[in-house]
Amino acid sequence: MIRVNGLTKVYGSGDAAVHALRGVDLEIPEGDFVAIMGPSGSGKSTFLSILGCLERPSSGDYYLDGRDVNSLEDDELADLRNKKLGFVFQSFNLLPRHNVLRNVEMPLIYAGVPSDERRKRAQELLEQVGLGHRLTHKPAELSGGEQQRVAIARALANNPLVIFADEPTGNLDTKSSLEIMEIFQQMHRAGRTIVLVTHEPDIAAYARRVIHFRDGKIVREETK
Ligand SMILES: Nc1ncnc2c1ncn2[C@@H]1O[C@H](COP(=O)(O)OP(=O)(O)OP(=O)(O)O)[C@@H](O)[C@H]1O
Ligand SMILES: [Mg+2]
After folding, report:
1. Which of 91, 100, 127, 135 is at 20 to 30 A from 62, Cα to Cα?
2. Distance between CA atoms of 44 and 198, rounded to whole angstroms?
3. Is the pTM for the entire model greater than 0.90?
4. Residue 224: is its pLDDT beyond 90?
5. In what side-by-side order are the strands of the sheet with 2-11?
């Protein structure tokens, strides 16, 4: 599903150059559930952004679903990102002026799905995350945990190959964090591929593999 070799990322140049990734090799088979841990600044978010095709590496190979990602043009990359990948962020990133249903429909609108079909799909996804009773609420009218559940429903809208989550429980209390992780657990059981960054060992414990980063490199891996 995912294979990277010798991946590097350098921000800036000359004396100001920051070597965020210094040669990362990793394979993630379909259906895997991977947690990425490591100190602040160790390159976790950079790595996730590259896997999620939000950024390009400075060097190294990246194959996603059999495709050489580096060789894709920007519009092909955007297309891959919109149609095949799902994202969940610490800050939820919902559109504040749109209601919950509309937020989840958004990726389907970009994908050109007809309105009846996308409404039905968005509603089903919101029911799956336990928010069938909140369809017309605005994001600000929801708790943090509920907002993150909307973000997860939105990430699932296009039935993505992989879900990338960067500290999805970082802004949540313990109870909401556990509810969110139960949802990731269910997605994993249903066969979804998940790559999740977290600082918390309790959260990482839900994953099948835990990869530890330090100074832009993988230094250790644990597998269940
Ligand atoms: N857009 C950027 N421009 C310049 N430097 C950057 C940029 N993004 C990240 N960096 C630098 O790259 C390094 C890795 O950053 P990254 O955000 O990947 O760390 P992280 O492991 O996610 O940290 P945290 O746990 O604090 O989120 C850091 O030194 C950071 O300052
Ligand atoms: Mg980060």
Report:
1. 91
2. 9
3. yes
4. no
5. 18-28, 2-11, 59-64, 67-68
Kindly state the tokens that stand for 160. 């993505």
Taking the CA of 41 as reference, the closest ligand is: 1
Query: What is the total count of domains within the chain?
Result: 1
CB 89 within 8 A of CB 168: yes
User: Which protein residue has the closest C-alpha to ligand 1 atom 24?
Assistant: 40
CA–CA gap between residue 196 and residue 204 (Å, rounded): 8
On average, the pLDDT of the chain sits at 96
Is 45 inside a domain boundary? no
C-alpha span between 148 and 172 (Å, rounded): 9
Q: Note whether residue 174 is domain-resident.
A: yes
What is the CATH number for 36? Answer: 3.40.50.300
pLDDT in tens, 113-167: 999 999 999 999 999 999 999 999 999 999 999 999 999 999 999 999 999 999 9
What pLDDT, on a 0 to 100 scale, did the predictor assign at position 160? 94
83: pLDDT strictly greater than 90: no
Inside any domain, residue 156: yes
184 is in which domain, residue-wise? 30-40+78-223
Q: What separation in Å is there between the alpha carbon of 201 and the centre of ligand 2?
A: 16
Which residue has its alpha carbon closest to ligand 1 atom 22? Answer: 45
Query: CA 33, 190, 4 angle in degrees (round to 5)?
Result: 35
Distance CA 189, CA 101 (A): 25
